[in-house]
Amino acid sequence: MLKLIPALITPEMLAALAAMGHGDEVALVDAHFPAARLASSAVLVRTPGLQTPQLLRAVLTLLPLDDFGPDCAWSMEVVGQPEAQPQAVVELRRVLAEQDCGLARLERLAFYERARQAQLLVQTGDQRKYANVLLRKGVIAQD
To answer: Which candidate in 24, 30, 112, 130 is catalytic?
Structure first.
């Protein structure tokens, strides 16, 4: 155990998060997500006992979000109902609002493609549909 590192962050996640650079992305996805198929170049970590919003809160204690563009986080649109807000997405939006970050939406296949390009893909045990979020890493300014 380390001081100040949330217990939900596995050693593999910690190493992958630390290795990410500005603009790199991490995908936190639900148990239904085709993570093994899409994680061809990403580090894949599984956290079967966690809900996505719970893990998001822990990741955000370590990961600075990118504030250079209009969006720093994305959820997956509901197929056939792009304006729908499933409960999992509402919870993800609430967690991100604590960081002054909005939650943009991507069409399902666009989300898959973006997750395929992520440096880290973390599959949670969240069994709710659409409990997925992509985050773009920012910087910690020293000036």
So the answer is: 112
Element (H, E) at 109: helix 108-116
What type of residue is 49? G
| 23-136 has CATH 3.40.1650.10 classification | yes
Cβ atoms of residues 35 and 118 within 8 Å: no
112 is annotated as an active-site residue: yes
Q: Are 31 and 53 in contact (CB under 8 A)?
A: no
Catalytic residue among 66, 67, 100, 130: 66
The residue extents of the domains of the chain are 23-136
The per-residue pLDDT for 74 is 98
What pTM was estimated for this model as a whole?
A: 0.95
Specify whether 22 is catalytic.
yes
Neighbours of 55 (CB within 10 A): 25
pLDDT at residue 129, as a whole number:
96
